[in-house]
Amino acid sequence: MPPALTLQDELLTWGESVRRDLPWRRTRDPWGVLVSELMLQQTQVPRVVPRWQAFLDEFPTPAACAEAPVGDVLRAWRGLGYNRRAVNLHRAATAVVERHAGRLPEDLDGLLALPGVGPYTARAVLVFALERDLGLVDTNAGRFVARALAGRAVPLREAQALADAAVPAGAGWAWGQAVFDLGAAVCARRTPRCGSCPITTSCAWALAGWPAPDPVTGSGGISGVQAAFAGSDRQGRGRLVDVLRSGPVPHEPLSLAAACGWPGEPERAVRVAQGLVADGLAAVVAGELRLP
Question: Count H helices, E strands: the chain?
Protein backbone atom coordinates (compact mmCIF):
# COMPACT_ATOMS: atom_id res chain seq x y z
CA MET A 1 0.00 0.00 0.00
CA PRO A 2 1.44 3.43 -0.91
CA PRO A 3 2.63 5.44 2.13
CA ALA A 4 -0.07 8.13 1.76
CA LEU A 5 -2.83 5.56 1.75
CA THR A 6 -1.22 3.75 4.67
CA LEU A 7 -1.20 6.95 6.71
CA GLN A 8 -4.82 7.68 5.86
CA ASP A 9 -5.97 4.19 6.77
CA GLU A 10 -3.98 4.11 10.01
CA LEU A 11 -5.18 7.49 11.18
CA LEU A 12 -8.84 6.94 10.28
CA THR A 13 -8.86 3.55 12.00
CA TRP A 14 -7.25 4.99 15.11
CA GLY A 15 -9.53 8.02 15.08
CA GLU A 16 -12.64 5.88 14.95
CA SER A 17 -11.47 3.87 17.96
CA VAL A 18 -10.57 6.81 20.23
CA ARG A 19 -12.92 9.58 19.07
CA ARG A 20 -14.02 11.72 22.01
CA ASP A 21 -17.76 12.12 22.48
CA LEU A 22 -17.90 15.91 22.37
CA PRO A 23 -21.33 17.55 22.10
CA TRP A 24 -20.57 19.60 18.99
CA ARG A 25 -19.59 16.42 17.18
CA ARG A 26 -23.21 15.31 17.33
CA THR A 27 -24.50 18.19 15.22
CA ARG A 28 -24.21 19.21 11.59
CA ASP A 29 -25.79 22.61 12.22
CA PRO A 30 -23.42 25.24 10.79
CA TRP A 31 -24.32 27.74 13.54
CA GLY A 32 -23.62 25.23 16.28
CA VAL A 33 -20.31 24.34 14.68
CA LEU A 34 -19.34 28.01 14.30
CA VAL A 35 -20.12 28.63 17.98
CA SER A 36 -17.99 25.65 19.01
CA GLU A 37 -15.07 26.73 16.85
CA LEU A 38 -15.01 30.26 18.24
CA MET A 39 -15.32 28.95 21.79
CA LEU A 40 -12.45 26.52 21.25
CA GLN A 41 -10.02 29.15 20.02
CA GLN A 42 -7.33 29.33 22.73
CA THR A 43 -9.67 27.68 25.25
CA GLN A 44 -9.39 24.10 26.48
CA VAL A 45 -12.10 21.58 25.64
CA PRO A 46 -13.20 20.90 29.28
CA ARG A 47 -14.05 24.59 29.72
CA VAL A 48 -16.08 24.67 26.51
CA VAL A 49 -18.14 21.50 27.00
CA PRO A 50 -20.56 22.89 29.63
CA ARG A 51 -20.81 26.32 27.97
CA TRP A 52 -21.54 25.29 24.37
CA GLN A 53 -25.02 23.84 24.86
CA ALA A 54 -25.95 26.53 27.40
CA PHE A 55 -25.04 29.20 24.86
CA LEU A 56 -27.06 27.53 22.11
CA ASP A 57 -30.03 27.16 24.43
CA GLU A 58 -30.02 30.95 24.76
CA PHE A 59 -29.03 31.73 21.16
CA PRO A 60 -30.13 28.75 19.04
CA THR A 61 -29.83 30.58 15.72
CA PRO A 62 -27.86 33.45 14.20
CA ALA A 63 -31.04 35.53 14.30
CA ALA A 64 -31.47 34.98 18.04
CA CYS A 65 -27.89 36.06 18.61
CA ALA A 66 -28.12 39.08 16.31
CA GLU A 67 -31.34 40.30 17.93
CA ALA A 68 -29.81 40.25 21.42
CA PRO A 69 -27.67 43.07 22.82
CA VAL A 70 -23.95 42.38 22.69
CA GLY A 71 -23.97 42.52 26.48
CA ASP A 72 -26.23 39.48 26.65
CA VAL A 73 -23.86 37.53 24.44
CA LEU A 74 -20.94 38.56 26.64
CA ARG A 75 -22.81 37.40 29.74
CA ALA A 76 -23.43 34.02 28.13
CA TRP A 77 -19.72 33.86 27.33
CA ARG A 78 -18.77 33.94 31.02
CA GLY A 79 -15.95 31.57 31.92
CA LEU A 80 -14.53 31.21 28.40
CA GLY A 81 -12.11 34.16 28.31
CA TYR A 82 -10.99 36.06 25.22
CA ASN A 83 -14.25 37.99 25.28
CA ARG A 84 -13.60 39.64 21.93
CA ARG A 85 -14.65 36.33 20.36
CA ALA A 86 -18.16 36.86 21.71
CA VAL A 87 -18.32 40.27 20.04
CA ASN A 88 -17.06 38.74 16.79
CA LEU A 89 -19.71 36.03 17.01
CA HIS A 90 -22.43 38.65 17.47
CA ARG A 91 -21.10 40.61 14.48
CA ALA A 92 -20.99 37.46 12.37
CA ALA A 93 -24.56 36.58 13.37
CA THR A 94 -25.71 40.07 12.42
CA ALA A 95 -24.03 39.76 9.01
CA VAL A 96 -25.65 36.35 8.46
CA VAL A 97 -29.08 37.83 9.12
CA GLU A 98 -28.48 40.91 6.98
CA ARG A 99 -26.77 39.21 4.03
CA HIS A 100 -27.95 35.59 4.06
CA ALA A 101 -31.49 35.59 5.49
CA GLY A 102 -30.29 34.02 8.73
CA ARG A 103 -28.50 31.00 7.25
CA LEU A 104 -24.73 30.63 7.28
CA PRO A 105 -23.28 30.62 3.77
CA GLU A 106 -22.16 27.23 2.51
CA ASP A 107 -19.12 28.37 0.54
CA LEU A 108 -15.65 29.40 1.61
CA ASP A 109 -15.79 32.95 0.26
CA GLY A 110 -19.14 33.63 1.91
CA LEU A 111 -17.90 32.41 5.29
CA LEU A 112 -14.64 34.34 5.01
CA ALA A 113 -16.63 37.53 4.42
CA LEU A 114 -18.25 37.23 7.86
CA PRO A 115 -16.71 39.40 10.61
CA GLY A 116 -14.28 37.49 12.81
CA VAL A 117 -14.25 34.36 10.62
CA GLY A 118 -10.78 33.51 9.38
CA PRO A 119 -9.52 30.83 6.97
CA TYR A 120 -9.33 28.05 9.56
CA THR A 121 -12.77 28.75 11.07
CA ALA A 122 -14.43 28.99 7.66
CA ARG A 123 -12.98 25.64 6.61
CA ALA A 124 -13.92 24.07 9.94
CA VAL A 125 -17.57 24.99 9.40
CA LEU A 126 -17.48 23.43 5.93
CA VAL A 127 -15.79 20.27 7.22
CA PHE A 128 -17.65 19.67 10.47
CA ALA A 129 -21.10 20.92 9.47
CA LEU A 130 -21.23 20.15 5.74
CA GLU A 131 -18.68 17.29 5.66
CA ARG A 132 -16.59 18.83 2.90
CA ASP A 133 -13.25 17.24 2.02
CA LEU A 134 -11.01 20.11 3.11
CA GLY A 135 -7.86 20.08 5.19
CA LEU A 136 -7.57 22.11 8.38
CA VAL A 137 -4.53 23.95 9.67
CA ASP A 138 -4.53 25.39 13.15
CA THR A 139 -2.22 24.80 16.11
CA ASN A 140 -3.22 21.14 16.63
CA ALA A 141 -3.68 20.17 13.00
CA GLY A 142 -0.65 22.20 11.95
CA ARG A 143 1.61 19.98 14.04
CA PHE A 144 0.32 16.94 12.16
CA VAL A 145 0.94 18.65 8.83
CA ALA A 146 4.48 19.75 9.69
CA ARG A 147 5.59 16.52 11.32
CA ALA A 148 3.66 13.74 9.61
CA LEU A 149 3.03 15.11 6.12
CA ALA A 150 6.03 17.36 5.48
CA GLY A 151 8.68 16.27 7.98
CA ARG A 152 9.93 19.87 8.04
CA ALA A 153 8.79 23.39 8.76
CA VAL A 154 6.39 24.65 6.09
CA PRO A 155 4.86 28.07 5.38
CA LEU A 156 1.13 28.40 5.82
CA ARG A 157 0.23 28.26 2.12
CA GLU A 158 2.13 24.99 1.66
CA ALA A 159 0.74 23.60 4.91
CA GLN A 160 -2.80 24.24 3.69
CA ALA A 161 -2.09 22.59 0.34
CA LEU A 162 -0.61 19.53 2.08
CA ALA A 163 -3.58 19.34 4.45
CA ASP A 164 -6.07 19.52 1.58
CA ALA A 165 -4.26 16.84 -0.42
CA ALA A 166 -4.16 14.43 2.53
CA VAL A 167 -7.94 14.26 3.10
CA PRO A 168 -9.36 10.88 2.00
CA ALA A 169 -12.19 11.32 -0.48
CA GLY A 170 -15.57 11.31 1.22
CA ALA A 171 -14.09 11.20 4.73
CA GLY A 172 -13.49 14.88 5.47
CA TRP A 173 -15.46 14.94 8.74
CA ALA A 174 -13.90 11.79 10.21
CA TRP A 175 -10.44 12.80 9.00
CA GLY A 176 -10.69 16.23 10.57
CA GLN A 177 -11.76 14.78 13.91
CA ALA A 178 -8.95 12.19 13.83
CA VAL A 179 -6.34 14.84 13.06
CA PHE A 180 -7.51 16.97 15.98
CA ASP A 181 -7.61 14.05 18.39
CA LEU A 182 -4.10 13.08 17.30
CA GLY A 183 -2.84 16.61 17.90
CA ALA A 184 -4.52 16.84 21.30
CA ALA A 185 -3.58 13.41 22.66
CA VAL A 186 -0.42 12.31 20.87
CA CYS A 187 1.26 14.91 18.63
CA ALA A 188 1.69 17.45 21.42
CA ARG A 189 3.76 20.61 21.08
CA ARG A 190 6.48 20.06 23.66
CA THR A 191 6.46 16.31 24.28
CA PRO A 192 5.02 14.37 21.34
CA ARG A 193 4.20 10.77 22.29
CA CYS A 194 5.81 9.25 19.23
CA GLY A 195 6.11 5.86 20.92
CA SER A 196 2.32 5.49 21.02
CA CYS A 197 1.52 7.25 17.75
CA PRO A 198 -0.69 5.26 15.36
CA ILE A 199 1.07 6.64 12.27
CA THR A 200 4.73 6.37 13.30
CA THR A 201 5.47 4.06 10.36
CA SER A 202 4.06 6.63 7.95
CA CYS A 203 5.10 9.91 9.61
CA ALA A 204 7.64 11.82 7.51
CA TRP A 205 9.48 13.16 10.55
CA ALA A 206 9.68 9.71 12.18
CA LEU A 207 10.82 8.06 8.95
CA ALA A 208 13.64 10.62 8.76
CA GLY A 209 14.76 9.75 12.30
CA TRP A 210 13.21 12.76 14.07
CA PRO A 211 15.93 15.23 13.01
CA ALA A 212 16.23 18.57 14.76
CA PRO A 213 14.74 21.08 14.74
CA ASP A 214 11.20 19.92 15.39
CA PRO A 215 9.19 20.69 12.21
CA VAL A 216 6.61 22.65 14.20
CA THR A 217 9.23 25.34 14.86
CA GLY A 218 8.50 28.07 12.35
CA SER A 219 5.66 26.26 10.58
CA GLY A 220 2.65 28.28 9.47
CA GLY A 221 -0.61 28.13 11.39
CA ILE A 222 0.97 27.01 14.67
CA SER A 223 0.66 29.47 17.53
CA GLY A 224 3.76 30.41 19.47
CA VAL A 225 4.09 30.46 23.23
CA GLN A 226 1.84 33.10 24.76
CA ALA A 227 3.08 35.72 27.18
CA ALA A 228 2.31 35.11 30.85
CA PHE A 229 -1.32 35.78 31.75
CA ALA A 230 -0.83 36.66 35.42
CA GLY A 231 -0.37 40.40 35.81
CA SER A 232 -1.01 41.07 32.10
CA ASP A 233 -3.43 43.54 30.54
CA ARG A 234 -5.42 40.51 29.37
CA GLN A 235 -5.99 39.52 32.97
CA GLY A 236 -7.15 43.02 33.86
CA ARG A 237 -9.46 43.15 30.84
CA GLY A 238 -11.00 39.84 31.83
CA ARG A 239 -11.54 40.95 35.40
CA LEU A 240 -13.16 44.19 34.28
CA VAL A 241 -15.52 42.42 31.87
CA ASP A 242 -16.47 39.94 34.60
CA VAL A 243 -17.38 42.83 36.91
CA LEU A 244 -19.39 44.48 34.13
CA ARG A 245 -21.39 41.29 33.70
CA SER A 246 -22.87 41.99 37.13
CA GLY A 247 -23.44 45.69 36.57
CA PRO A 248 -21.87 49.01 35.52
CA VAL A 249 -18.73 50.52 37.03
CA PRO A 250 -18.22 54.26 37.57
CA HIS A 251 -16.09 55.53 34.71
CA GLU A 252 -13.39 57.02 36.87
CA PRO A 253 -9.83 55.84 37.49
CA LEU A 254 -10.03 54.44 41.02
CA SER A 255 -13.21 52.44 40.37
CA LEU A 256 -11.80 51.04 37.13
CA ALA A 257 -8.52 50.16 38.85
CA ALA A 258 -10.36 48.27 41.59
CA ALA A 259 -12.40 46.33 39.02
CA CYS A 260 -9.22 45.41 37.12
CA GLY A 261 -7.56 44.22 40.32
CA TRP A 262 -4.94 46.98 40.12
CA PRO A 263 -5.80 49.41 42.92
CA GLY A 264 -2.44 51.13 42.57
CA GLU A 265 -2.52 51.49 38.77
CA PRO A 266 -5.46 53.74 37.82
CA GLU A 267 -3.83 55.01 34.61
CA ARG A 268 -3.34 51.46 33.38
CA ALA A 269 -6.95 50.62 34.22
CA VAL A 270 -8.21 53.64 32.26
CA ARG A 271 -6.17 52.51 29.25
CA VAL A 272 -7.61 48.99 29.50
CA ALA A 273 -11.15 50.37 29.76
CA GLN A 274 -10.55 52.48 26.66
CA GLY A 275 -9.43 49.34 24.86
CA LEU A 276 -12.64 47.54 25.82
CA VAL A 277 -14.70 50.39 24.42
CA ALA A 278 -12.67 50.44 21.19
CA ASP A 279 -13.16 46.68 20.80
CA GLY A 280 -16.91 46.86 21.33
CA LEU A 281 -16.86 45.04 24.67
CA ALA A 282 -18.00 48.02 26.72
CA ALA A 283 -19.61 51.43 26.41
CA VAL A 284 -19.59 54.59 28.47
CA VAL A 285 -23.13 55.68 29.36
CA ALA A 286 -23.97 58.51 31.77
CA GLY A 287 -20.59 58.38 33.45
CA GLU A 288 -20.57 54.62 33.82
CA LEU A 289 -18.75 51.83 32.03
CA ARG A 290 -21.15 49.04 31.14
CA LEU A 291 -21.63 46.18 28.73
CA PRO A 292 -22.98 47.36 25.35
Answer: 15, 3
